[in-house]
Write a structure and sequence with these properties.
It is globular, with a radius of gyration of 25 Å. The strands form 3 sheets. It has a 6-stranded mixed sheet with strand order 6-7-8-3-9-10, with helices on both faces. Strands 2-1-4-5 form a 4-stranded antiparallel sheet, covered by helices on one side. Strands 12-13-11-14 form a 4-stranded antiparallel sheet, covered by helices on one side. 34% of the residues lie in helices and 27% in strands. The protein has 2 domains: 225 residues, Rossmann fold (3-Layer(aba) Sandwich); 74 residues, ACT domain (Alpha-Beta Plaits, 2-Layer Sandwich). β7, α5 and β8 form a beta-alpha-beta unit. By secondary structure, the chain is α/β, with parallel strands linked by helices. The chain binds adenosine-5'-diphosphate (ADP). The site of adenosine-5'-diphosphate has 11 residues, from β2 and α1. The site of adenosine-5'-diphosphate (ADP) has 11 residues, from β2 and α1.
């Protein structure tokens, strides 16, 4: 269990309700997340889920209806703490007449970094994000990817202990995305807490240690990427018949292997003629007798691999469940208790 000093963010029961004459919007309905120092944490959710609202509460841009917890050990909402926080907002815009260096000086000065430190850090940061040759060029001449790299450098000008990054790889080409991943891995190794808000799930899977899935202002799941993607785990074996295979069909194989794993085995024929044997187990010991039996029956094993769901599978499953829960709630009498959001 992480101790309080291991935690960069420990938000508990964040609630934000927007009320107007016409309607009430529950942007957050009691979300709790923890981000450790030295980890990359992903905030996932469809548009309107409440991700930006949570980040804005941490950045004190908006006031929560209610919220408990700490960031870098200080109560959420404590302004001086922001001096140790780096922020990359979504769709950020820098004045396009400024050079990259001027942008870093401008934002550095705003977060209280003295001139001598800014002079030292600006070229170092430009180098870190791959813009060392563009320091004197104006933002006007920058591509989307370059602006995003500059945004990251800007978020680091105050040497933050915690980074809040809204869509950091938005508009960045594959090489640039890899650079950003490497950069974030270095920051993680240096013990920074990094909270990323993105909808690019494949990117997050490569980047994040843990993630939370939010829908309609509620937290539905939080955990390591492995924990979020454990469902549907299986071993898959591909094999093709040879001239010596006595019964080269999926049906015959199903009957032959039935005594080993019975109904747990799913056997299908692939368009290539190979059979695909799927067994819902994570233990490689389970599949050894199947491989032995295949060999004994003159099947040639072409591939054996552990299958696990992707983060996208996990996300879609959680969102579908969340929608089903919401529908059920809509049809439940008002006095019944709502289901609690998932916890790790
Ligand atoms: P996300 O970042 O996950 O796309 P947001 O946090 O921006 O979602 O928004 C969550 C919900 O709060 C949405 O329904 C959005 O329309 C609503 N919302 C956000 N800002 C305001 C505001 N200033 N006034 C009213 N509703 C808002």
């Amino acid at each position: 269990m992480p101790t309080a000093s291991d935690l960069a963010v420990d938000v508990y029961d964040a609630v934000k309700t927007y009320r107007s004459m016409r309607n009430t919007i529950h942007a957050l309905r009691g979300v709790s997340i923890t981000v450790r120092r030295g980890e990359v944490f992903g905030l996932l959710g469809p548009n309107g889920a409440g991700k930006s609202t949570l980040v804005k509460i941490l950045m004190t841009v908006i006031t929560p209806t209610s919220c408990q917890g700490t960031m870098l050990g200080k109560p959420i909402g404590d302004k001086p703490t922001l001096a140790k926080v780096g922020y990359l907002p979504e769709h950020h815009r820098f004045p396009d007449y400024l050079t990259a260096k001027q942008v870093l000086h401008f934002f550095g000065a705003m977060s209280g970094v003295d001139r001598a430190t800014r002079r030292k850090r600006a070229p170092m940061l430009l180098d870190m994000v791959g813009l060392s040759n563009a320091g004197n060029r104006t933002v006007r001449q920058f591509s989307k990817g370059m602006r995003q790299r500059l945004g990251l450098a800007q978020a680091m000008i105050n040497d933050p202990d915690m980074l809040l990054l809204d869509e950091p790889t938005d508009g960045v080409d594959p090489e640039g995305r890899r650079d950003i991943r490497n950069l974030l891995a270095n920051l993680r190794a240096a013990g920074k807490g990094i909270l990323i808000n993105t909808h690019i799930l494949a990117e997050l899977e490569l980047l994040c240690d843990r993630a939370a899935i939010i829908h309609s202002g509620e937290l539905h799941k939080q955990g390591t990427i492995a924990e979020l993607t454990t469902f549907n785990a299986a071993y898959e074996i591909e094999a093709r018949p040879t001239a010596a295979t006595p019964a080269p069909s999926a049906e015959a194989l199903t009957a032959d292997l039935a005594h080993l794993a019975g109904a747990q085995l799913q056997i299908t024929t692939k368009p290539t003629g190979e059979v695909l044997i799927r067994w819902a187990t994570t233990d490689p010991a389970d599949i050894q007798p199947i491989i032995d039996r295949l060999r004994a029956a003159a099947w040639q094993v072409t591939r054996v691999y552990p299958y696990r769901a992707t983060l996208e599978d996990a996300f879609i499953k959680v969102i579908e469940q969340a929608k089903a829960q919401e529908n059920a709630k809509r049809h439940t009498p008002a006095h019944s208790t709502p289901t609690a959001g998932g916890q790790p």
